[in-house]
Specification:
Elements (H helix, E strand, L loop, with lengths): L8 H18 L6 H7 L4 H8 L2 H23 L4 H14 L1 H9 L1 H6 L5 H21 L7 H20 L9 H16 L2
Helix pairs in contact: 1-2, 1-4, 1-6, 3-4, 4-5, 4-6, 4-8, 5-6, 5-9, 5-10, 8-9, 9-10
Amino acid sequence: MARPVLHDDALRGRLLEVTAEVVDRVGPAALSLRSVAREADTSTTAIYALFGSKAQLLAALLNESFASFGAAQAEAAEEGLAALGVAYRRWALDHPARYRLMFGGALMMSEECTPDPKLASASMAPLREAVERLQREGTFRPEDPATVAAVIWAQVHGMVSIELAGALPHEADADDLYAATLDATVRAWST
């Protein structure tokens, strides 16, 4: 008779989500597997069985987050550069703890935990491909596409990070401000 499955994908997903929230709240140095298990209503045994260690749990969180972010970007890619920007913000607002972990650097600095470079690179590929497509069409300046993509990412990332930090001017409408950022970014690189 087969052994019953004790720890399934639903528990794995819940542990990743709880880990993101706990690290976002207390910082990576204060993260304990006991607190994650308690908040996920499970045991540390489940964490060890599913992930192996704290470092592996954190690496899995980063990898799963980059994969999810990359899938959202790939889904929006066919609709063009502005759609990629909208999808970027939507994903960040839907997953603020994961976004801060992916791009904030605290986890990577304190835990020496880095995402799989292929996943991280693939998550940004739709942006680079959109820039290259616009350059081939002659509607974007013919500068190094990697540089153009990095600058566009920095502008979009900056606005989203300011919004998530609650640092937008109190009278500003976040949707309008983000739309203006996307418009200005596209105009800056257009021919």
